Amino acid sequence: MKKDLKTFITENRAAFDDVNPPSMLWQRIADELDKNEQPQRHTPTLRIQLRRLLKVAAITFLIGTAGMVIYFYGKQQAYHDYSKVNPDLAAEQQIYAQLVMQKKDSVAYIATSNPTLYGEFSKVLNQMEANYEALKLEFKESPNKALTLEAMIRNLQAQIEVLSQQLEVLNYINQTKSQARNEQI
Q1: DSSP label at 38?
Q2: Of residues 31, 153, 37, the one with CA closest to residue 88
Q3: Which of 165, 143, 163, 139 shows the shortest CA–CA distance to 152?
Q4: Does 63 reside within a domain?
Q5: Are 145 and 83 in contact (CB under 8 A)?
Q6: Cα separation, 144 vs 135, whole angstroms
Q7: How many CB atoms lie within 10 A of CB 179?
Q8: With b meaning 16 or more CB within 10 Å and e meaning fewer, what string describes 63-74?
Q9: How far, in Å, CA of 132 to CA of 160, rounded?
């Protein structure tokens, strides 16, 4: 077969030399090569997207865990500081602090229907919380830590009383609204 091809080429060599390729042949070849060489859009594959998502999730988890550890360690450390002064007062302070948090959550939940009133309530509570934070700072340097701890407890009790009054007001407002709706029906 090779001999037949060689023979064919040698016999028709003159015909091959006389024929010119079409004039636009090289341009079409160049265009095709350019199309093939153009960078294709690189779309991230599912695997790469999943890796990125897992990296973000891992970083978020680590930061969140570190924040929670620091928060709870600080809270536990404060309790230990209070319990060194007076364990009974420290336990009482913890109970009142939890009650304040529960009442705040209740007020925030009920007050969603009346944001302006909640804003007014928040102003009063923010002032009381600022006083409480000042007492916490004073506790660290106070010569009479037991007395400062008692003041902190009284502040928490006052916050609970104010929050209870706010809950009563909000419940009364909600009841009058529901009664007005029932009367309209």
Answers
A1: S
A2: 153
A3: 139
A4: yes
A5: no
A6: 12
A7: 10
A8: eeeeeeeeeeee
A9: 13
The encoded tokens of residue 35 equal 């199309």
How high is the pLDDT of residue 108? Answer: 81
Q: How far is CA 166 from the centre of its chain?
A: 30
Find out whether 95 and 156 touch, Cβ atoms under 8 Å. no
Are residues 133 and 60 part of one domain? no
155: left (phi over 0), alpha (psi -120 to 50) or beta: alpha
Q: Is the dihedral of CA 134, 137, 140, 141 positive or negative?
A: negative
- Quote the number of domains for the chain: 2
Domain span including residue 117: 86-184
Same domain, 97 and 57: no
Taking only the tens place, the pLDDT of each residue in 46-84 is 888 888 888 888 888 888 888 887 776 655 555 456 777
Q: What is the C-alpha to C-alpha distance for residues 137 and 134, in angstroms, rounded to an integer?
A: 5
- Decide if 135 contacts 173 (C-beta within 8 A): no
Please tell me the pTM assigned to this model: 0.52
- Which residue blocks in 19-114 are alpha helix, DSSP H? 25-37, 46-85, 87-110
Structure tokens at 39: 């960078």
Residue type, 15: A
The answer on 124 and 59 residing in a single domain is no
